[in-house]
Each structure stands twice: as structure tokens, then as C-alpha cells.
Write a structure and sequence with these properties.
CATH topology of the largest domain: Hydroxylamine Oxidoreductase, Chain A, domain 2
Structural class: mainly alpha
Shape: globular
Number of strands: 11
Number of domains: 3
Distance between the termini: 85 Å
Largest sheet: 3 strands, mixed
Length: 506
Amino acid sequence: MGNLVSLLAAVFMTLQSLPANSAEQEDAAISSEGLSESTQACIACHSHYTPGIVHDWLTSRHAKTRPAEALKKPQIKRRISADTLPAELSAFRVGCFECHSRNAKQHADNFEHMGFRINVVVSPEDCRTCHPEEVTQFSGSKKANAIKNLMENPMYHAMVRELTGVKKLDQGHLVTAAPSESTLHESCLGCHGTKVRVKGIKQVTTPSGDIPVPDLTNWPNQGVGRENPDGSIGSCTACHPRHAFSIEVARQPFTCAQCHLEPDVPAWDVYKESKHGNIFFSSRQHWDLSAVPWTAGKDFTAPTCATCHNSLVVSPVGAVLSERTHDFGSRLWVRLFGLIYSHAQPISGNTTIIKNDDGQPLPTTFSGAPASKYLIDQQEQRSRLKQMKTICNACHNTDWINGHFAKLDKTIKETDNMSHTATDLMNVAWKRGLEDRSNPFDEPIEHRWLKQWLFYANAIRYASAMTGAPDYTAFKLGWWEMTDNLAEMQDLIELKTAVKEMKKGK
């Protein structure tokens, strides 16, 4: 193998020495200084066969940085959290081989490729080599547990099956077949992530001939809770797209907009209408989206999603306003996106462990009682709210901040009350036998009940929390829809009750 590595590295050097006859050749050139021989060998081929990947990597900090140099920076300016690194990594810039060869024994997707042992999937456990704190934080988050939280919760699973299953007419009644893997992969699990497994080895035709590679299920895949062939969960590239892994990309709200969209999680839509969004779109070309730490008022003048949820933010005099975190719910005291009602944030990112007082896998009962054992207590809620206010305080005075959060608190209570009214109507329909409670998502009144808390209440709360998107609190998925939806539910109940009585009369 050593001879092959040296040969490919020599090819790489030869390619560099050729005169640049075009802008493309000139752009493709990269100094071999600081690159391992193995990475040089990768680039020798991939700069021709997958140039987009190589060029993307060339824009990255990885391509320009030796980890040993990063460790010399003051702690607050570091982009890595490891204190020590393997010797074979610290001396080289971070290239193809340094990432795609980690933890080979744990990777079922590891295979022989041109004399190297390579992993197809770079997982969070591989990133842990340089970013252990970030991976530990992320692994405990709701995002990392996104598949489990969706598919192993019977209530959510029933909702997914009803949403994505193929409908057929059977003796005058609609019946739902289980959704296919493809449908799940491109719908709910497109964001939540799917399970990547190795089925075997297949032959792939390339310009160099047929190459054996692992045959993976559910690939390609960039879901945030992806289950990887090495047994780890999560995908760093959901927010830091490969192969640039850019912090600039992760800090922009466009990245969150991949998944956080109306009607159920309308954070992006609300942000676009908000005052903060207005400032972002008007002035982002003047911001420094790559600075670490990120200085409020200097590097940016309005928050993006990352500002409030996970970035290391400091004041202009260097005071830390918020520490970096990759558990995106760790600063939040309330969960706006609840199943039926809002509630305190769960203690664990694995929400499948939650059981309410009625034995259901829900954070609240249908009557609204919280499953307090599994949720953060009031002291922790106050602590997190105080931390969020500290971030706001970089730009706003105390009176403005307190007024905003008092309004949000009132909005949360009122939307919960409107969702409770919808649940009361749903209970009427179930008690009268108008709809079957075994699956709470498959009949017309139940569809409207679902919309009340999943679409309309969420839209109002997100709009209230994110400093103003009045259209979303009023007419677009807001109060108008909640009110109209309740009227429709009541009308359907009365209509179905009348029909049922007429049938009994016959």
C-alpha cells in the first residue's frame, strides 16, 4: 500500500507542476505542503473525477489548518474542543483521509479503495476526534434522537403513517397502507433522518472502471438524526454541509430553513417577516459570519437562529453572553412545539421515555397536565429564560425584553386554551362514537384537531417568540385559522350526530 500511496502522491505533484492552461486548472491547483501523503493520493484522482467535492473542501478551514496550530489559539477563539489530538492528525491539514479513515473497526461501511481502508460515511463519532464537546452536546439533543422521537413514539408514528401511507378505497371506506421506505425518506424522515445500513458490496461504474463500494440503505441521507453504519446517531453535515463544513453556512437562517418551515414548524417563514429577518436580509453582506467568538453589534446586528440557539456570543468588550452549545434546546425553557400543548423542555433529548399521568407517551395529558417528572423544573426554566434575556440585552433594554417575554407567555397560555377547546370537541366526537379513537389522526374531525395544535397554535407561538410576524399570528395559520377551525369541528360534530340519529331512526 505504501508504494501506491507514494505513486498517487507523485501523480498529485506532477499535476501541480503542469502549466495552468485554464482557469479550471489554476483553481484546481493546491499546495501539497501540510497535506498527508494519503490525502494527496485522494486528491490526485478526485480532483478529476469529483472536482466539486475537492473544490468545496478547498474553501474549508480544514484545508488550510493544521489542528496543532488551532490548539495554540486562546480557548475562546478555538473552533475545536479537543485538548490533545492523535499524532497522525495534528501535523497535517485536515483532508480526505484524515476524516474518512477514522474508527475503521466501528464502521460497517469501511471498505478497501485503491489501497486504502475508507469509510463512506463520516459520522459524529469521527468528528469527535477534534470536536468532543460538540458531539457530546449534540448526541444528547432532541435533534440527534430525531428518528427515535418520531418513529418510536406510538402517537407520532400513527401520525406519520396516516400522513404518508398510500390510501385506497375498500368497500366504500378509505384504508391506509404502511408508507414505503422511499416515501418516508423524502417526507418526514428527510429531516429527521433514516437508518443507514450496509446491505453488501456493489459495483459502481466510473471513468476508471468498475469499483466495488458498500451498498447502503437510505443513501444519500442528510437527516439531522441519521443513524450511521458505525452505530452513532446524528449528522453534522445537516447544518455544516460537506465538504466545506462552513460555520458561515451553519449560522445563516437558510440552513435551518431546510426543515423548519410552515405549516408545522414555521420558524423560517416567521423569521423572514420579523424585524430581525428584515435587518438580516438588508445588511448581512456587511456581517462577519465566520468570527469566533461572535461579537454582537460588531460581527452582526440582528440575531439569526444560531445566535439564540447555539453560537458563542460575546459583547463588544468581550464579555460572554452565551457559551457555544450543540444541544439546540439547552437554552430554551419552554417547548413551543408540543404534542397538543406547549410544555417545559424535556430533560432528555430522547423523548420516547416520557409517560404522562394517563400512561400515554406524551409530555402532557389530553387535559393539559404536564409529565413533570420528565420535564425541566421551574428553577431550570427561570435560569434558561435569564440566559436568553442576556442575549437579547446585547441590543435591547430591560423593559423591552421583559415586555416581549411577558407577551409571549400570555400568547402561549391563550393558544394552549384554544387547543384545549379543540381537544374538548374531539372528546365529544369520540364519546358520541362519531370517530374511532384507536387512531386519533385518520378521520375528518381528528384532522382538524391535529391542525389546531400542530399548525395553527405553533404558528402563533413561533411568530410571538421571534419578535413579530403579525400575519402569522392573525390570518396566515394564526388566530383566524384557530377560530375558524373550531367552528368547522363543531359543525362536523353536529352534522355527523344528525346523520347518526337519522340512521338510528330508520
